[in-house]
Amino acid sequence: MSNALFRFSSDAGLHLCRQLSEKDLHFVPHDYSLIVATNVLDGVDCLFRSACGSGKTGVLALIALCIGKMGKNPSAIPTAYRSRIPEKPVILVACPTDALEIDLEAKLRSYNVKALAINSDLLADAFKRNEDIWDTAKQAEVLLVSPEMLEGDAFANALKDKSFFHRIYLLVVDEVHLVYQWSKLFRKAYGNIGITRNRLDKKTRLLLLSATVRSGPPYTHILKTFNLTSGNFLDLHRSNRRPEVRVTTTFLPTSPASSYTFPFLSWIIGLRGITIVFTRNRTVLLRIVLYLMRAHPTYAHLIRKCDSTNDLTYDKTTFEMAQRESHEKRLILVSTAVLTVGIDIPSVVRVITLEPLTFEQEIQEGGRVLRRKSKGTTAEVYAYFSKATYDRAKEIVDVDKAGKSHGNIAKTGDKRKLHQRLESADVGMHADQTGKAILSLDMAYRLVADCLTKEQDRQFDNPPFYQDLCTCPMCLSLQPTTSESDTSVTDPPCISSCCMPGQSERDRLLQSRKEVLAPPPDPPKLSRIEIRQRNVERRQQQLNLAGKETRGYLRDRLISLRSKLFDKYGDNYTLYIPICFVPDQAIETILDNFFLLDTPKHLRESLAGQGLEAEWIDDIWLELHDSIPGLLEVHEKHCEDKRRKTKEARDRNKAKKMAQSLGKDVENTQSQDAEGQEDYYDSEVE
């Protein structure tokens, strides 16, 4: 270890890093994670670009564990490197959202790394206790802060502590593509992180992480912000494709901003796995949450909103529900941008994004699915766009391909000025003079692309997917099998709706529900005698089960049976919701034929053609049998109320007749008195 030529990026250095981290890491590090970590330990700045869920956070944990143990035990590293690693090294991580800070803090602590997320809630608690949060922060190994906090006076005062100043070993910028997207729009602090780097010790390394740095202006802007030039940093670029994720592009039936009901989202209620719905409008978010809660109150407690207005307790409860292994995993998270980047939630199997503004945003939101990979598993992403957005995208692409300006295509717009704004803007999301978001050129090309995968490879300059195959156990298990004669590995095919239409989970689910809930076929034509016999039977049924109370009681019993059957058989029928087990049509059939259902066989015959399994019908028969005592009680009460009302009506009619007869006697008496008075007056006059 005393060799002056030792480098961490050598085979010996890689072996040393594995030894230092294998005890605390719950996984074998990827080969590319070790390459990035060892280059950082060698003092090289790094830009690491890789797909969502490919282990970028694992690089941070790997570095933190290695430098922490080397700082405590300097004898484990060569003499030449001991002066480069302080006794208690600190890693400073700039995070875009509080939710990402909380997620990274929990994950790093699971690896025995002392991490601390400094956010507004923590600062408020420290202020109430009259404490300086930076005194506590100096004891942590990894500090998770916002870019705005790096510009604050509190951080500037903390840097005046020379001990803490020299302990800052590494500056990490997570989701560095936001430096290009957000710095010119609403978070200027993102553009000043490069200045923060200049305020730190010259020995402080730099690590930039992202999955969506587009080639061209975004890439150039990031290098310029951090003063990186070709040759003075490591640019490890891996493909950001996720071939196991199917992207379905579809049209919105109505504008979410003007809607209060969202029936096109009702199919996600009650499905196994976690579903995330992304919208950039907070008002729309609240409307969606209320609609989903009212659409199926049984799952109202599993529908959670995620935005920046939530308090820390609510967010922690949401993340605990998502992380809990024993949970039913039917959680629905309706979120703004707070869950767009970096959040690692297991069991997310589908994402719905409503009108994303940029291609990067769509990829980041879709990157929340399938964070725990296994061979053969797939996930779904549904991108909803309005028809007007798609038409505008075609116009923009046509104008751009023709070599003209791609500004406002409207007849009243100034194409030249808007074209200049789009070309000169160092942002990914564009806005017109009124501040209203407009479609960016990269998103326009994505919408009209014949193959989404090829367009993604073009815009992000992706290398071949299977380039430099990783030899860790997880990656080896995911690699496609090859024959002995042909060992070449080709890129996986595109499974999105552009290349494989009509095969999404939503399409299969809606089709299966349509078959289950479809009305029965029209009955055959009957003769007059058969119609008369049928009417007699129906009349008998109506006499036996005529009251609204009895029908309502039995209907309530059958509706409550839906949830029981769903809990009992839901694992085997993952695409079904409770109404599929006892459809409304089946309930009406049972109510109309209740007293003719003598045996389970009669019940099966009456429900034939409605798509119900035999085991479901057996449970329905048991429920009907158990409901008879209560049904008779309700029927008896109904009859008693009817008899009472009949008696009361009879008494009222009798009293009315008596009153009418008394009224006639009074009228006769009054008329006789009047005649007598007239005779008296006549006699007086005479």
From TrEMBL:
Residues 642-652 have a biased composition (Basic and acidic residues). The keyword Disulfide bond does not apply. Residues 675-686 have a biased composition (Acidic residues). Residues 37-231 form the Helicase ATP-binding domain. InterPro entries: DEAD/DEAH_box_helicase_dom (IPR011545), Helicase_ATP-bd (IPR014001), Helicase_C-like (IPR001650), P-loop_NTPase (IPR027417). Residues 642-686 are annotated as: Disordered. PROSITE patterns: HELICASE_ATP_BIND_1. It catalyses: Couples ATP hydrolysis with the unwinding of duplex DNA by translocating in the 3'-5' direction. The keyword Transferase does not apply. It comes from the Eukaryota. GO terms for cellular component: chromosome; cytoplasm. It is an enzyme of class 5 (isomerase). Keywords: ATP-binding, DNA-binding, Hydrolase, Isomerase, Nucleotide-binding. Pfam families: DEAD, Helicase_C. One of its GO terms (biological process) is double-strand break repair via homologous recombination. Its EC number is 5.6.2.4. GO terms for molecular function: 3'-5' DNA helicase activity; ATP binding; DNA binding; four-way junction helicase activity; hydrolase activity. PANTHER family: ATP-DEPENDENT DNA HELICASE Q1, DNA HELICASE RECQ FAMILY MEMBER. Belongs to the helicase family. RecQ subfamily. This is DNA 3'-5' helicase.
